[in-house]
Amino acid sequence: MPRTTILIADDHRVLIEGVKSILREKGEFKVVAEAVTGQEAVDDARRCHPDIVIMDISMPGIDGIEATRRIKAHLPNTKVVIYTMHSDPAFIDELYNAGISGYVLKGGPISDLLAALEAVQGGEGYFTSTAPHNLLSKTLERVPAERYGDRLDNLSSREREVFCMLADGYPIKQIAKKLFISPKTVETHKYKIMTKLGVDSLPKLTKLAIKHKMINI
Predict the structure, then answer these.
(1) Which domain-ending residue is among 137, 155, 181?
(2) 3-state SS class at 80
């Protein structure tokens, strides 16, 4: 099976080497380029066409936000995972609009970054624990006023599974165990479900499930 190609963009060489070392232990990832400026990240991405870019926000020259915009404009299929110290909602909103697939804070364990890469590799999104609320609140402002029944049709089969279990009162860890996925992946599904349905709390999610007879009461 071909390995997922990675471009690491960060202005700290020590961090790049650390991430490379961790990824080297994971056989499914291959680092194909390293960039220490925003422009280098854009140029290297256009040259290598990586599957995933790990991008810092604070970069010399053009910052990670602008670099992400340019990369996504030329390579819409390349996924960008932000790896940064910044948790400012303004950054998160800009990056969401730029089309990122993941957002991980450097202050957390390296396992968060690996979980993000695995989620994105599998076609899902991943947002570190402080990001989903900000992303959700910003996204809900843009959800059109359409019928909930129509919105339910937008859920994937896995999102429907998670939706029903959340509405039925299952805790995150139990859902993860039953579906053989990580708790972080369940959290990401939860964020995407609430975004698609335009709800901002579990009680509202439960009421919606009951109304459309998706759970038994």
Answers:
(1) 137
(2) strand
